[in-house]
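Example for tutorial group B:
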């Protein structure tokens, strides 16, 4: 895979035709002591993983599956969400760069999904390891983008919601997208917690004002989204009037 290394020269990029999961591979390297910036990009994943134990459909040739090792200083559990949200903004901006005639503006469904119109085209999975003081030892940022329609179509369970960026293959486009995402993410990440990405994250979210379900192990609760703050937390009001700021979790919303 050719990538414009000039833009992202501090990353140590490894490309594979097939892996079980780029996140799993980078986690293994993290445990062995790999440095921040260790990156894996694969053409196919046989055990691609999504949030809350789901699988991430990762067929050959049509998707971009990549994971990046981060070793941020002074990130506690509550800061970990920033990695996902910085990546979400980076993906939206990168998509706008590569799509010339953008029918839909890329939008975010809190906390980690990117949509074009009513279709999810990208999911983000950040996995962390914490020390005894609750600080992040390392994080693996995993990004999966459906760049082209899968050759065999999407599996039935996601065919109504999953979409793709381009309807036909364009030479070099996956590589360009990868470089744009990584370069933009690194810019926000290096700027740190005070970078201007949080306002962009809020502006691109389509959930504000919407009725949602907040999903948990015990079930789901009806709520309305009130706001997203500078830490990218979601403010919700439940049907009983109680309000809460969520810094992680899963919601479902009608798109
Ligand atoms: C989700 O939508 O629930 C998140 C999906 C994250 C998928 C990416 S693809 C690259 C990396 N490797 C994985 O196994 N998962 C992430």
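The residue assignment follows.
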């Amino acid at each position: 895979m050719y990538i414009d290394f000039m833009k992202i020269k501090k990353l140590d990029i490894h490309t594979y035709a097939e892996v079980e999961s780029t996140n799993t591979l980078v986690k293994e390297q993290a445990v062995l002591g790999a440095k921040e910036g260790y990156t894996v990009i694969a053409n196919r994943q046989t055990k691609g993983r999504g949030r809350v134990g789901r699988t991430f459909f990762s067929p050959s040739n049509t998707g971009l599956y990549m994971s990046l090792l981060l070793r941020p200083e002074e990130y506690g559990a509550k800061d970990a969400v920033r990695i996902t949200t910085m990546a979400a903004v980076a993906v939206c901006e990168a998509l706008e760069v590569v799509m010339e005639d953008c029918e839909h503006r890329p939008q975010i469904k809190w906390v980690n999904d990117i949509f074009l119109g009513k279709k999810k085209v990208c999911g983000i999975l950040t996995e962390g390891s914490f020390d005894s003081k609750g600080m992040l030892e390392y994080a693996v940022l995993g990004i999966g983008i459906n760049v082209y329609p899968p050759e065999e179509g999407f599996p039935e369970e996601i065919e109504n919601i999953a979409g793709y960026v381009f309807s036909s293959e364009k030479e070099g486009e996956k590589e360009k997208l990868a470089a744009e995402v990584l370069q933009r993410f690194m810019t926000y990440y290096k700027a740190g917690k005070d970078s201007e990405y949080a306002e962009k994250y809020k502006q691109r979210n389509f959930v504000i004002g919407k009725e949602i379900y907040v999903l948990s192990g015990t079930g789901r609760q009806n709520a309305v989204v009130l706001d997203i703050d500078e830490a990218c937390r979601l403010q919700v009001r439940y049907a009983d009037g109680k309000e809460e700021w969520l810094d992680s979790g899963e919601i479902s919303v009608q798109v």
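Helices lie at 22-31, 80-98, 173-191, 197-204. Compare this with the pattern of hydrophobic and polar residues in the output above.
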